[in-house]
Structure to design on (742 residues):
């Protein structure tokens, strides 16, 4: 049982045993959450600040709930409306917050690498809640936990990730995590939504859903951002749904017991048929949300442990 | 004025492409003769080079001195001293200042400031279009009369081909040199990296390396139309090289340059979003880097520049996408270029062909040569002396170098401009 990280900035720096450690802990939290067990002592006395430079409802709520269940004092800062608008730089904002001595800082930012930059300037533990197109580690971890609970394992599975890979931090973190755990990853989407150099990621790439979904154990759909829908990257919503939207006919190509996932919020009728999303035999979308809280509780507990063991170094 | 004689020098001759021990005699600011390493004449100051390299001073095209407008980033005094310390004897300054240098009046301001403060030769370039906005051409004739050495909108591409073709045609009638940035502007809009595995992993907005060839192809077509004298500021990708080679073979008046960072670094150096490595164009793959190094050795790429771009700490201490582009390089140009020599990818005469001779030829200046009659603009350096770069020690006001902490080789022992020593002891 080891988890050596000071921050959770991405999946990339994590060792497979660290991922397993975190998922094991999250797994027990998931069960206890269902039973309504309280753990107010775990983060008691610690301050958690949620700093979201980009709109988010579900992720922010999930982090807030996770912190509160463990007894942390949680504060939310909506950064779109704040000092950034007054011209303050990210680093100054970080230094200002740092001076208030928080213990856990949860950050989402529209630019890749911004959370890494911020983490260099503070002496609390930083959790990346999504930076640009780079990483969204807790999403990948909650997806992994959902898969592990549904499939009984997190290795040697065939997993398809479908849709807007190019702009998705969820896809990047998932590719890294599922790759580290030795799964077979297939990416499916129109070539305009595939990142360059994707062949070098150790994945298989498909442009056709039927071909790509053949015999997979897990179908992971991605959200198509509104601004990408019209003309820029794909011809239209309806053509996208026809060719890449997950419906019953396309799902037939996957294994009969394949599960369907989506990080939310969904565009029903664009990337996923509403009936599939609501099919309790196939869709684990609600469970993903549930696992989200458990994974974030585990991540914060492990980081807080490391924080306590290694006293804060004073930095500039 | 007594003569100066440099003895025991390892003479780097970019014309004859030789590298051998000899002596040079300097009289009235010019090289009077290049001789065998003989006896010490009585009536001269003697500089004993002790076997170190003596080469024509570097002529650096595309240096940003942030006057007027942003003197806190770099002034003529600081840039001049940094150039002297780096063995650069001529800086060719960029007009991308605030305001842009697009009138004879602003050009004269720059010339006056340079005259007052810089110990090296300063040749100012002027903007090709007013305000570098790509809409109307500047007063090319008046600017030439005022001393503009070349015309460029720097890193802004003139997107309107009508405007650009007219500017090229007008420039041709005055035999003016036009320098262009070759990046397809719409494709590369918003890009912070070269597309590929690395940019995708880091989630950075990226542009295909092909954007460079697209722009070069367009400009070559316009050159065939207009016949202007043209220099592509930075050719950094393998895919652009065949087009460049063909255009040269077809007799167009085209030359190409490259910045030192694209010759010595690649995209992976960005690592964890290190903004000092954010350049324009972005750093390329290792395959591209090797191809352009070879192109410099072969002479297909003519000129190596520092592309010196001072940026203050605030404009670099930002998330990668928001951070400013560019790096300072006056003092690191030579040691970085010597990496190619130590890697045995290029010899010293060919290196100085790209650093000194070719830029002088392009600008129709007499320097860049170790020949009788040439100005005594010289650099004496130890190509092997090792050091670790500490950016805080740079003479440039801005310290944004990607080589901070890097182990490098090559120390400038002395710099002479018109026979007068401006750097080094003695």
């Amino acid at each position: 049982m080891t988890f050596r990280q000071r921050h959770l900035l991405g999946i990339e720096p994590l060792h497979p045993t660290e991922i397993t450690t975190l998922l094991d802990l999250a797994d027990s939290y998931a069960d206890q959450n269902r039973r309504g067990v309280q753990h107010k002592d775990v983060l008691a006395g610690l301050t958690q600040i949620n700093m979201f430079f980009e709109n988010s409802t579900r992720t922010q709520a999930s982090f807030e709930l996770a912190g509160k269940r463990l007894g942390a004092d949680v504060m939310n800062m909506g950064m779109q409306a704040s000092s950034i608008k007054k011209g303050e730089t990210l680093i100054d904002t970080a230094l200002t917050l740092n001076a208030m001595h928080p213990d856990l800082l949860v950050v989402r930012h529209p630019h890749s690498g911004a959370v890494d930059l911020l983490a260099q300037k503070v002496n609390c533990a930083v959790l990346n809640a999504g930076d640009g197109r780079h990483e969204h580690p807790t999403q990948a971890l909650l997806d992994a936990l959902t898969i592990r609970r549904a499939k009984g394992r997190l290795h040697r599975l065939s997993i398809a990730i479908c849709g807007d890979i190019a702009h998705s931090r969820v896809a990047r973190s998932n590719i890294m995590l599922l790759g580290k755990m030795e799964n077979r990853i297939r990416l499916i989407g129109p070539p305009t939504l595939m990142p360059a150099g994707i062949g070098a990621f150790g994945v298989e790439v498909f442009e056709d859903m039927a071909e790509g979904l053949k015999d997979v154990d897990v179908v992971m759909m991605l959200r198509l951002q509104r601004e990408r829908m019209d003309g820029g990257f794909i011809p239209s919503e309806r053509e996208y749904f026809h060719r890449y939207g997950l419906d019953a006919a396309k799902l037939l190509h996957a294994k009969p017991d394949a599960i369907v996932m989506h990080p939310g919020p969904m565009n029903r009728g664009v990337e996923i048929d509403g009936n599939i999303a609501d099919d309790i035999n196939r869709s684990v979308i609600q469970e993903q949300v549930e696992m989200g809280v458990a994974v974030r509780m585990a991540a914060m507990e492990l980081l807080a442990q490391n924080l306590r063991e290694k006293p804060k170094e004073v930095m500039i | 004025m007594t003569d100066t004689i440099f003895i025991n020098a390892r003479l780097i001759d970019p014309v004859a492409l030789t590298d051998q021990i000899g002596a040079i005699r300097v009289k009235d600011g010019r090289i009077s003769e290049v001789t065998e390493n003989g006896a010490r004449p009585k009536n001269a100051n003697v500089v004993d080079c002790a076997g170190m390299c003596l080469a024509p001073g570097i002529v650096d095209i595309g240096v940003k001195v942030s006057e007027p407008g942003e003197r806190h980033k770099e002034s003529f005094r600081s840039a001049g001293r940094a150039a002297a310390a780096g063995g650069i004897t001529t800086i060719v300054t960029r007009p991308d200042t605030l305001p842009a240098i697009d009138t004879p009046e602003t050009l004269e301001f720059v010339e006056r400031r340079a005259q007052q403060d810089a110990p090296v030769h300063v040749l100012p370039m002027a903007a090709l279009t007013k305000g570098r906005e790509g809409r109307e051409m500047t007063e090319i004739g008046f600017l030439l009369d005022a001393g503009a050495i070349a015309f460029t909108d720097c890193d802004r591409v003139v997107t309107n081909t009508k405007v650009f073709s007219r500017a090229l045609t007008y420039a041709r009638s005055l035999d003016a040199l036009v320098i262009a940035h070759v990046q397809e502007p719409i494709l590369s809009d918003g890009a912070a990296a070269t597309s590929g595995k690395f940019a995708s992993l880091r989630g950075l907005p990226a542009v295909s390396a092909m954007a460079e060839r697209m722009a070069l192809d367009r400009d070559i077509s316009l050159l065939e139309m207009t016949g202007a004298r043209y220099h592509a500021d930075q050719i950094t990708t393998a895919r652009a090289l065949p087009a460049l080679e063909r255009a040269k073979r077809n007799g167009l008046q085209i030359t190409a340059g490259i910045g030192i960072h694209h010759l010595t670094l690649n995209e992976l150096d960005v690592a964890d979003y290190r903004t000092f490595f954010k350049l324009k164009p972005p750093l390329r793959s290792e395959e591209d880097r090797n191809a352009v190094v070879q192109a410099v050795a072969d002479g297909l790429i003519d000129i190596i520049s520092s592309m010196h771009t001072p940026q203050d700490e605030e404009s670099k201490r930002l998330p990668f996408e928001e951070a400013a582009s560019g790096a300072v390089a006056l003092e690191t140009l030579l040691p970085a270029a010597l990496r190619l020599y130590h890697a045995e990818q290029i010899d010293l005469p060919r290196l100085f062909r790209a650093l000194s001779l070719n830029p002088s030829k392009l600008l129709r200046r007499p320097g860049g040569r170790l020949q009788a009659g040439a100005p005594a603009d010289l650099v004496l350096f130890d190509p092997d002396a090792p050091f670790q770069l500490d950016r805080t020690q740079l003479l440039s006001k801005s310290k944004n170098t990607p080589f901070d902490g890097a182990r490098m080789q090559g120390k400038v022992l002395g710099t002479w401009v018109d026979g007068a020593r401006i750097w080094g002891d003695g």
User: Anything to note?
Assistant: Chain A touches chain B at residues 12, 89-91, 109, 111-114, 116-117, 131-135, 166, 169, 172, 195-198, 200-201 (CB under 8 Å). Chain A has a mean pLDDT of 92.
